[in-house]
Amino acid sequence: MTTLPLDTALLYRSIPKVELHVHLEGACELQTVMATAKERQIPLPFDDTEKFQNLVSLSGPQSSLENYLKPLITTVDIVGGSSKAIEMLAYNFLKTSHEAGVMYSELRFSPIWLSYSQFAQITYDEVVDAVASGLDRGKKDFGVEYNMIICLLYTKPEHSAEMVDLALRYRNKGVAGIDICGGEWLPLHQLHIDAFKKAKELGLNITVHAGEAGPAANIKRAIEVLGADRIGHGYTMVKDEEVLAMAKKLNVHFETSPISSIYTGCEKMGEPHAIQKYSDNGVNFSINSDDPCVMRKTLTDNYVMASDVLGLDYKQIKQCVLNAVDAAFLSDDKRASLKEKILQKFTEVESQYNIN
Ligand SMILES: [Zn+2]
After folding, report:
1. Of 25, 212, 255, 267, catalytic
2. The domain 8-352: what is its CATH number?
3. Cβ(253)–Cβ(222) under 8 Å?
């Protein structure tokens, strides 16, 4: 018999976690963004923390994904092209991850976005170097293991081949795979298809944003055409039994984010949620924070929402963490070692909370 404490926030803060879907652009902590704005003399209210925070984050759910992305664009305009800021943001990301109980994280980012702002420009390699340096420093200080994922952009097919080459160049320096984001509603450009084909042939891991605001057909396209091993979000799959059956048969992993699914307007509070149907149908999925600083919500907040709002029980939530371990872009050796540490930590937490 499982006995749960009343305070699920405490319990879900304590459990070990693996995060597979989080964007550096959406995980830019406020102090570094403010300091960079000040340093670059950007005329923003950087002396008023609250006003500044309102510019770079959201106070609640939005009516569309486009509106949801606006603060993210403002943030990247401030920190883009600064190796110093990017390094610090990556370091602080692992600090926050550690505080949320994360033992392994895959941080994704777009070198295209982060390389440029109106104030400065750096190369794509310099972006990856800065992220890697911050994460490496963070790993030493906080003990969180990591990998990086390079994001291609649906809107920029002309850069896709270059992004795949970049990921290949950094494959042994912490880049584990590629993603594509920012416009799944667009027709899939041949240059994207060619780039993903090369990535697949050369053994890069692949995750794809699909079925978030777009139809379930985009999930099928991501799996069949782009070779996706994992899908970012995929909520609209619940409306298509054929795609649902296909994803289950292939054991495709879905990286969900309970809070961003509401903030983007893709799912609605008070209505049946895709994650509940995933859970009822035995879909392979995990819980992630996506853009924590845009929503001012932590990874733990996402776990609490999965529990308290979506009704997942402890066993189902623990399974989400174990699913993430199995779907992580890790070698077999590293996965086995991570799983051992995660299970050990679960044993400690279950003993502390009398869960059996
Ligand atoms: Zn995302």
Report:
1. 212
2. 3.20.20.140
3. no
